[in-house]
From TrEMBL:
Keyword Cell division: no
Name of the protein in question: Phospholipid/cholesterol/gamma-HCH transport system ATP-binding protein
Location of the ABC transporter domain: 2-237
Keyword Transport: yes
Alphabetic keyword roster: ATP-binding, Nucleotide-binding, Transport
Superkingdom, taxonomy of origin: Bacteria
GO molecular function: ATP binding; ATP hydrolysis activity
Upper classification of the organism: Bacteria, Pseudomonadati, Pseudomonadota, Alphaproteobacteria, Rhodobacterales
Signal peptide as annotated in the record: none
Matching SUPFAM superfamilies: P-loop containing nucleoside triphosphate hydrolases
Organism (species): Cribrihabitans marinus
Pfam families reported for this sequence: ABC_tran
Length: 248
């Protein structure tokens, strides 16, 4: 469903992606791991076309992601941004139902509101948050509103950037189960960025580790522990000592 081939992206002399190659088969869940600042979020934004790489190819369902109808392209995606990116002047339910209130997916207002409330329930939020503003919620609640928005229009492809950061362990478990369900029940293709190794094990079919601008290791999650890759081992065990320097 998604292919990145030899993608390069620099910001000035900061060479972030230096030949990133990645494949996500349709209906599978890929988790990207890697140190802070290695370019995970940049890679995700390149696939969405929000950042233009200097070279390389990105294909979504066999089509060049940078060409064609942007609206139709983006309508296939659900997206949770790392910082939440909620609209702070809109009540929670209108954030969740954002795409159901406009454009080609437009539904009657009451129906959109009911869908929003149902999606909020799936991320562990009660209906009474629907009419509040994002600023009136805790950080973890805002994150979950972002998740509810990402899944509201039942997209084919879902990107989650740090879905469990800032959540308590029980709520993180709820979100991990939800991501797994979306892939297995709805047949969606998912790409998740996380630092949470419990989450990696709960949601990944495949894992890819980004380091020094390239995919250092990729494989099925079951092979992660016996990879023999010193970079991956250092990362998954959280060791200060190893080939990855702590100051970057
Ligand atoms: N719009 C931008 N302009 C300039 N530099 C950017 C921009 N976006 C990202 N960068 C730089 O690209 C590098 C990778 O950033 P990115 O956000 O992808 O890291 P990350 O792997 O997602 O890290 P984290 O785990 O901390 O979220 C960083 O050095 C960052 O400063
Ligand atoms: Mg990031």
């Amino acid at each position: 469903m998604i292919e990145m081939q030899d993608v390069h992206k620099a910001f000035g002399d900061n060479r972030v992606l230096q030949g990133m190659t990645l494949t996500i088969p349709k209906g599978t869940s890929l988790v990207i791991i890697g140190g802070s600042g290695t370019g995970k979020s940049v890679a995700l934004k390149c696939i969405l076309g929000l950042i233009q790489p200097e070279s390389g190819r990105i294909l979504v369902d066999g089509k060049d992601a940078s060409k064609g109808d942007r609206d139709a392209f983006l309508a296939r995606f659900g997206m949770l941004f790392q910082g939440g990116a909620l609209f702070d002047s809109l009540p929670v339910w209108q954030n969740v139902a954002f795409r159901l209130l406009r454009g080609s997916l437009k539904r009657p207002q009451e129906e959109a509101r009911q869908i929003a409330i149902e999606k909020l329930r799936r991320v562990g939020l009660k209906a009474d948050v629907a009419d509040r503003l994002p600023a009136e919620l805790s950080g973890g609640m805002q994150k979950r509103v972002g998740l509810a928005r990402a899944i509201a229009a039942e997209p084919e492809i879902i990107f989650f950037d740090e879905p469990t950061t800032g959540l308590d362990p029980i709520m993180a478990g709820v979100i991990n189960d939800l991501i797994r369900e979306i892939v297995t029940e709805m047949g969606a293709t998912a790409m998740t960025i996380t630092h949470d190794m419990t989450s990696v094990r709960a949601i990944a079919d495949d894992v890819a580790m980004l380091h020094d601008g390239v995919i250092q290791w990729t494989g099925p999650v079951a092979q992660m522990d016996a990879s023999g890759d010193p970079y991956l081992d250092q990362f998954i065990h959280g060791r200060a000592e190893g080939p990855i320097e702590a100051v970057r």
